[in-house]
Amino acid sequence: MNVALSLSQQRDDDKLILDVIPPPELHLLLGCVNTLYGSMDKLYPDIATKWAQQSNIERSYTNGGKFSFAGNACNALLNNVNKLKFINIVEFSGFAKLTVEA
Asked: What is the pLDDT of residues 57-90, one digit of tens each?
């Protein structure tokens, strides 16, 4: 082994793994926002597109070949979530009807 003292050898049974190796915040943000937007894009493509346009952002291809938003774009979407407005909840196939304020 080329490590003097690995994390597995330094373990403290009273510590949580999250205290030793915290999850990367950026990756959590990217995953949550891109999953949310992807689901919305499948159900309401016009609304999702309008929300992104009103936030002045675009998705792009990342190094992994995924078509998704980068970190600053994710923040812009979250900062403009107020542009989405639930106008009525329609009991139709279990989905709420959404609209985007102009």
From this structure: 999 887 777 889 999 999 999 998 888 765 444 4
For tokens 């373990």, name the residue: 11
Q: Is 61 helix (H, G, I), strand (E, B) or coil?
A: strand
Q: With left for phi above 0 and alpha for psi between -120 and 50, is residue 73 left, alpha or beta?
A: alpha
Length of the chain as a residue count: 102
Amino acid at 1: M
Query: Tokens 């190796």 map to which residue?
Result: 21
Helix (H/G/I), strand (E/B), else coil: 51 = helix
87 three-class SS: strand
Local structure of 55: helix, strand or coil: coil
Q: What share of the chain is helix, strand, coil (3-state, %, to 5)?
A: 45, 20, 35
